[in-house]
Amino acid sequence: MKIEIWSDVMCPFCYIGKNNFDQALEKLPFKDEIEVEWKSFQLDPSLDASKPQNTVEYFKEKKGFPAEQASQMIGQVAQMGKSAGIDFNFEKALIINTFTAHKLLHLAKKHGKANEMEEALFIAHFTDGKNVGDIEELVSLAENAGIDKDEARQALTSHVFDSEINQDIQEAKNNGISSVPFFVLNGKYAVSGAQPAEVFADALQQTYKETVSPFKDLSKEGGASCDTDGCAI
């Protein structure tokens, strides 16, 4: 069963959503039958890749929120994070254009390490205060994940993954996805936002039952049929 997840590195609810999704997945008996594919999404593609901002500055300048209101909102999200087992350090988080970070995600996907890299990017941004738009910081994350640093640097400084990133973003637009996180379950159902683990578990179980589980046989004895060996009455 395939799960597609649209996300952006600097989206705190994407981190919370991933955490809750992982908790739900871990308890399911069919977890080994689930394939997760991370998709790129940019909350603010207009951001300058060379000029990081702190979170309060960003909400004040870009969104027009007073500093006090921005701080209050950030505090509420931080509390949500604690409830999900996440330590948000918004005072250290650097707001930056995330397109280059998405290049690293797609490189990790090529190596079968996208889920690991998504987690590493969230930690780097929200917990460690790393600049996830900086090439050397991203190369270091690649090395920690077992990806060759020269291959990573080449991918991050070239346009090799640009079309894949843009395709993800366009696919989101085509499907009416305007906010993240957004989970598409086996092409049949969708779950939006940082839902509790219980919601993810219920949605995954329902999707599995309807799209993967063997058919429930409602037939009665005596029904005539044919197979490859012939027909039986």
TrEMBL record:
> Which PANTHER family does its entry note?
GLUTATHIONE S-TRANSFERASE KAPPA, THIOREDOXIN SUPERFAMILY PROTEIN
Query: Domain of life, per the record?
Result: Bacteria
One GO MF term attached to the UniProt entry: oxidoreductase activity
Q: Which Gene3D superfamilies match?
A: Glutaredoxin
Q: One Pfam family, short name please?
A: DSBA
The answer to whether keyword Isomerase applies is: yes
Domain DSBA-like thioredoxin residue range list: 3-205
Keyword Isomerase in annotation = yes
Put simply, this protein is called Predicted dithiol-disulfide isomerase, DsbA family
UniProt keywords (A-Z) are: Isomerase
